[in-house]
């Protein structure tokens, strides 16, 4: 009798909790690893608010847990490994930082390749399909779009008038492509976390450093520098990717909604990045209007035709040959695919 009663009660409890459990199972949790909290206004005003409002924007039954990479205590160089592991479902990929794990990413933004937003759109669109295929095969991930932090320019503590003045100096660089470029100029490229640069400039640990004007402004670099040389070397390409197992949790219709929303974010960041660059250049050099940053009074060195030619020539002379060896070592078709897409655009 007791056994029959227990069986009956158990059956009732299971029946009564089944709808509740099914309802909970429909909610998909997306853990998002974002850009560093102190990396600038793109992360603060675009990325973070977007993901926090993603459920409302898409109408999907999702719960989003957004965490900046530095708050999570994860090196940003590990972005693709984290994505592959499934520890996070979506990762805001920092292109230069993850390029050691997947060199093809660097092919989107070699020094001298993207010297303007217009050039960047063209070249990134041409090669992102190949990069996406690599992420899928090597990291079980789907690329959901690519965006630029903005033109990367040079900030120096000593006053400089052009690229030739960098000879003999120590320059903080963001990736190997930039390191190879400054080496060609006779300078020494030094890898250093963004948060350490301002103090390093102040103390003379480095003479110059490369980043976007908005990032430099938010990091206080103009407090330690005297000059900005606004010759664009790269666009500092970043992007979003989702683990394929996480992607498979959604129906095709839901996937379309999610991908569409992130496409809108990418487009929004492209436009915002250009606005930030122009505003930050004014802020850093004390020119009104300065609407989003802190005003400083850096000297803006004039960009010469010789410097523009040096940067443009860097693709064929420095960036491409060095990168191609690295990329071909892990993907034998890498250079060939780049030349068939981006190379055709450049006439190489």
TrEMBL record:
Family annotation (Pfam families): DctP (PF03480)
Entry keyword annotation includes Signal: yes
Gene3D superfamilies assigned: Bacterial extracellular solute-binding protein, family 7
UniProt cross-references to NCBIfam families, sorted A to Z: TRAP_S1
Signal sequence interval, chain numbering: 1-22
Keyword field contains RNA-binding: no
InterPro entries attached to this UniProt entry: DctP_fam, TRAP_DctP_sf
Organism superkingdom: Bacteria
Keyword annotations: Plasmid, Signal
Protein's recorded name: TRAP transporter substrate-binding protein
């Amino acid at each position: 009798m007791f056994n029959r009663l227990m069986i009956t009660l158990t059956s009732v409890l299971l029946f009564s909790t089944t709808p509740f459990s099914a309802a909970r199972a429909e909610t998909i949790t997306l853990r998002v690893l974002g850009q560093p909290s102190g990396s600038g206004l793109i992360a603060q005003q675009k990325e973070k608010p977007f993901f926090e409002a993603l459920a409302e924007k898409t109408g999907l039954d999702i719960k989003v847990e957004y965490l900046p990479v530095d708050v999570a205590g994860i090196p940003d160089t590990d972005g693709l490994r984290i994505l592959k592991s499934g520890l996070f479902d979506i990762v805001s990929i920092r292109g230069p930082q993850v390029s050691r794990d997947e060199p093809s990413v660097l092919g989107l933004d070699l020094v001298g390749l993207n010297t303007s937003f217009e050039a960047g759109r063209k070249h990134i669109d041409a090669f992102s399909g190949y990069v996406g295929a690599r992420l899928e095969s090597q990291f079980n991930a789907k690329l959901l779009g690519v965006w630029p932090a903005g033109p990367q320019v040079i900030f120096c503590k000593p006053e400089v008038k052009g690229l030739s003045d960098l000879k003999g100096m120590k320059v903080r660089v963001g990736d190997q492509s930039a390191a190879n470029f400054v080496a060609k100029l006779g300078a020494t490229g030094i890898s250093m976390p963004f948060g350490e640069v301002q103090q390093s400039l102040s103390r003379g640990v480095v003479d110059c450093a490369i980043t976007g004007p908005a990032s430099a402004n938010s990091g206080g670099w103009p407090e330690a520098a005297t000059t900005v040389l606004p010759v664009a070397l790269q666009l500092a390409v970043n992007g979003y990717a989702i683990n394929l197992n996480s992607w498979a949790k959604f129906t095709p219709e839901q996937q379309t909604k999610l991908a569409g929303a992130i496409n809108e974010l990418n487009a929004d960041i492209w436009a915002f990045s250009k606005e930030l660059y122009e505003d930050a250049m004014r802020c850093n050099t004390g020119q009104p209007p300065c609407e989003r940053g802190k005003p400083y009074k850096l000297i803006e060195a004039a960009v010469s035709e010789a410097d523009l030619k040096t940067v443009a020539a860097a693709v064929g002379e420095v960036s491409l040959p060095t990168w191609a060896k690295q990329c071909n070592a892990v993907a034998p078709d890498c250079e060939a695919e780049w030349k068939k897409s981006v190379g055709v655009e450049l006439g190489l």
